[in-house]
Design goal:
This protein is an alpha+beta fold and about 350 residues long. The protein has helices at about 5-25, 25-30, 40-55, 65-80, 80-95, 105-125, 130-150, 155-175, 175-180, 185-205, 250-260, 280-285, 300-310; strands at about 210, 235-240, 260-265, 270-275, 295-300, 320-325.
Length: about 350
């Protein structure tokens, strides 16, 4: 039984969470109507956590500090989309709490989850409830309560996972946009999957797949919105190398004046920026005052929404919970892997 989360255990938990997020990314995409109905949250979260997988596989972290630091750094640099950036912040705050530690007990891990939530709320300009922020906050509070009451690591993580599921089910009523579409928050669903999978690995359960419990329907949640109602067309993201004399706070204020969904993460060496705007060129020009740019991504969310209407998902997913379901896997003596460019 695990009484402490070590570097090796944390690494394996993240690797498994990433694998299941990737397997479930389309189900998450089909929920993504907030903050913009562009249907890419699952893809973004999968690509974001995938950067951590790449770096973790290169390392053998001896401590939970090392494992969390590698994860947080990779996530921040590879974060995509609003939920991807918030996910990176949740792990960034976690990493700060376990700094200097070889392993973490129940209370340390609970406090690390809460510090991640604090980091996310501070970086998001206009936090909206009924989102991944709400889900992660409720999970962290449940973890704190359980850790103080029991001191048991598994109970603490289980309490966080259960609270996250309950919070996810409530997002539909908390957020008017989600209520209109009849779905729960996509980023919150992704976070629940990550917690649930990490918990299952900690328990030693065999993980074959994660299912999103749904209610079959012919409805397409993206039909509830008009493309013209998207106020800001371009999802714009980039990383700034801190080599200039500009002020991240001034950049944040400027971005708020030309768009929304602004997240500016001021790290030691880089600044990670996410904004929805009609003028990505202005955002880039202002950012150049701080330093050189890297990993620039600009996506047209109106086109993404139109494509989601045309390619209607097979089911509407008003998720009440996300659960793990173990199934027997038929083992075969040989397997084939096809690798194709693109």
């Amino acid at each position: 039984m695990n009484e402490q989360i070590t570097g090796a255990l944390f690494k394996r938990m993240v690797l498994h969470g990433a694998a299941v997020i990737t397997a479930q990314k389309q189900a998450i995409n089909d929920l993504n109507v907030f903050p913009v109905p562009d249907g890419d949250t699952g893809t973004n979260m999968s690509m974001t956590i995938g950067t951590a997988v790449t770096e973790l596989r290169k390392s053998e972290p001896a401590t939970v500090e090392q494992a969390a630091s590698v994860t947080a750094s990779a996530l921040l640099r590879g974060a995509r989309g609003n939920s991807g950036v918030i996910t990176s912040l949740l792990f960034r705050g976690f990493s700060k709490r376990v700094k200097g530690l070889e392993s973490g007990d129940a209370l340390v891990i609970a406090e690390a989850l809460r510090e991640g939530v604090d980091a996310a709320y501070k970086a998001v300009m206009r936090p909206a409830e009924g989102t991944i922020l709400t889900v992660s906050m409720k999970a962290a509070q449940a973890a704190i309560d359980a850790a103080k009451a029991t001191g048991n690591l598994r109970v603490t993580f289980s309490s966080a996972s259960d609270a996250a599921k309950r919070a996810l089910a409530e997002t539909t009523q908390q957020n008017p946009v989600l209520k209109k579409a009849g779905v729960v928050d996509a980023g919150g669903a992704g976070y629940v999957i990550i917690l649930d999978t990490m918990l299952a690995y900690m328990r030693g359960e065999k993980i074959t797949r994660t299912v999103v419990e749904d209610t079959p329907s012919d409805a397409n949640p993206f039909d509830a919105f008009e493309t013209e109602d998207i106020n800001f067309t371009y999802c714009t993201e980039f990383i700034i190398d801190r080599s200039g004399a500009g002020n991240p706070a001034e950049l944040r204020e400027f971005l708020e004046s030309i768009g929304d969904c602004v997240v500016v993460v001021d790290d030691e060496e880089i600044v990670k920026v996410h904004v929805h705007t009609n003028n990505p060129g202005l955002a880039i020009e202002k950012a150049l005052e701080l330093g050189s740019l890297d990993r620039i991504k600009i996506e047209n969310m109106k086109i993404q929404h139109t494509q989601k209407i045309i390619a209607a998902p097979k089911v509407e997913v008003p998720v009440s919970s996300v659960s793990l379901e173990a199934e027997p896997v038929e083992e075969k003596p040989y397997g084939f892997v096809a690798v194709a460019a693109g």
